[in-house]
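My current task is to audit a protein record that another person submitted. Alongside the sequence sits a line of tokens, each denoting a local backbone shape. Please read both lines and tell me whether the tokens look consistent with the sequence. Do not assume that whoever made the record got everything right. Thanks in advance; the entry in question is below.
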Amino acid sequence: MERKVALITGGGTGVGRAVAVSLTAKGIACGINYSKSRHDAEETVKQIEADGGSAIALQADIADDAAVREMVKQLIDHYGRLDYLVNNAGRTFFIPLDDMEAVKDEHWDSIMGVNVKGTFHVTRACASYLKSAGGAVVNVSSIAGLTGRGSSIPYCVSKGGIETLTKSLAHVLSPEVRVNGVAPGVITTRWQDGKEKAVESHKEIVPLKRVSSPEDVAEVINGLLLNSNMVTGQTIVIDGGFTL
């Protein structure tokens, strides 16, 4: 049986890395996209190969459509197919929500360029291969897109945009391809470095009394990719009950 293949944007760290490690453990080959974190992506590939899996690192700024198309070409040239896509790459700036004067056009352009346009660019470039394979897509959003609270106003808006984009793509790519999303709450990634006290305080108001690990989020993503054959256009909240 020919090995199935996944592409994971932002796959060198955090949730992306957890998804790549778990999928390759199931025998699925992975393209690990990165923009600037080359070392992290290559270390992820080394870990996967040491565990007997197959992966390659692929550089592209997903805000650049031409770079995305070249990345997908490299993946297809290497593996010959594409079955799964995880749009995980994201960007933010930490700007207090009530400091609207601090939000500049470059913040909007950078965040929307990666989080929304980038998700669209990658999905469009992969669409024909995913349709041929009868594949699946998962977009990584955030509860910031539901609550309007997060690292900055542009970030919250971008994540709300991803949830709408998920629905649009589910219509466009059906019936061959299922498109879903996940909306995590606080995750123990490097974005929380230096915020340990705030994370501990957050746990106290979460019904499950903990925050998600990257592996918690990866488990749900894998389920949507591999097992949820009648689910499309949905965004699953992964926040321990925080938004109840």
Remarks:
- The longest helix spans residues 105-133.
- The mean pLDDT is 94.
